Amino acid sequence: MAKNLMRAVQYKKYGGGVDDLKHVEVPIPSPKKDEVLIKVEAASINPIDWKIQNGIARPFLPRKFPHIPGTDVAGEIVQVGSGVKNFRAGDKVVALLGNGGALAEYALAKEISTVPRPPEVSALEAAALPIAGLAAHQSLTLHAGLKLDGTGPQLNVLVTAASGGVGTYAVQLAKLANAHVTATCGARNMDLIRRLGADEVLDYKTPEGKALTSPSGRKYDIIIHCTTNIPWSTFAANLTPKGKVVDTTPGFGNMMSAAMKKITCSKKKLVVVLTDPKKENLDYLVKLVKSGKLKPVIDSKHPLNKVGEAWGKSMEGHATGKIIVEP
Questions:
Q1: pLDDT class of 64 with cuts at 50, 70, 90
Q2: For tag attachment on the chain, is the N or C end more exposed, with fewer CB atoms within 10 Å?
Q3: From CA 295, how far away is CA 292, in angstroms rounded?
Q4: DSSP collapsed to 3 states, the chain
């Protein structure tokens, strides 16, 4: 490979799927004033990555083609922009990229979306955090009002698709908030979700799982919804009178449903999470991993030259935890 070039993965159009992911050599980018250049040690794939490829944010994202996808990276800073104050070359970090770029040997990140990675947190663990961890954190705190220090009232929380990337974090964080947690997942993952702290676990394929029925007969104050195709009527039947569904899978349909709930002044609410890349939230999650209070669940690791396997696995929708790509 020629000097000043890096290996990367790109796609050139909407809707191409795995077949449109191309391995290329492109120039290593240079950081702008407020950016850092990271030598990528690990990146993770999120469903939003291939949904953007499918056109969910068209015409706003990607900003241009060809596009290097991926937002979650961990690695080592090799260069900083002239205005960067808090980092220097050699620092180990984790970052959420605003415009993709993770599936490459080097990636640019804004300083305001980058946090230090202590030696107790591996690159693999750190790369698994940003999008999924922030979605779980903000669902529970910003939208559901839980206090992760456990000082709030004990609420009954349901997490659907609890064995996925967001779900595995939501279960653990809800337990830190002293919640009683019911979770749904596939039969093969029920023991894992119990180990992560869930008080009750439902196989989503059983009648009780499809109905979201708590084994102890509880109604839910909060439902952290991490999957699709569950009708509002099923949620409503299981919510407390002022219960709330926090939907972590943004799309046109659920946004319209959330708007209708506001228009009709329903006491039972539906809110849709759009993850905010808050540096302080990401730093908090990294510190939880360092302390052992939060454990990233890794489904699989894939080399960059086999990124199609990782992309396809994410599209299938049955990963347990996070899918990692290593350059």
A1: very high
A2: N
A3: 7
A4: CCCCEEEEEEECCCCCHHHHCEEEEEECCCCCCCEEEEEEEEEEECHHHHHHHHCCCCCCCCCCCCECCCCEEEEEEEEECCCCCCCCCCCEEEEECECECCCECEEEEEHHHEEECCCCCCHHHHHCCHHHHHHHHHHHHHHCCCCCCCCCCCCEEEECCCCEHHHHHHHHHHHHCCCEEEEEECHHHHHHHHHCCCCEEEECCCHHHHHCCCCCCCCEEEEEECCCCCCHHHHHHHEEEEEEEEECCCCHHHHHHHHHHHHCCCCCEEEECCCCCCHHHHHHHHHHHHHCCCCCCEEEEEEHHHHHHHHHHHHHCCCCEEEEEEC
How does pLDDT run across 101-122, given as a tens digit for each residue?
999 999 999 999 999 999 999 9
List the structure tokens of 225: 């919804």
pLDDT tens, residue by residue, 126-174: 999 999 999 999 999 999 999 999 999 999 999 999 999 999 999 999 9
Predicted TM-score of the model (pTM): 0.94
**Mean pLDDT for the stretch of residues 223-232:** 94
Asked if 310 contacts 323 with a C-beta cutoff of 8 angstroms, the reply is yes
Let me know: does 86 contact 113? Beta carbons within 8 Å: no
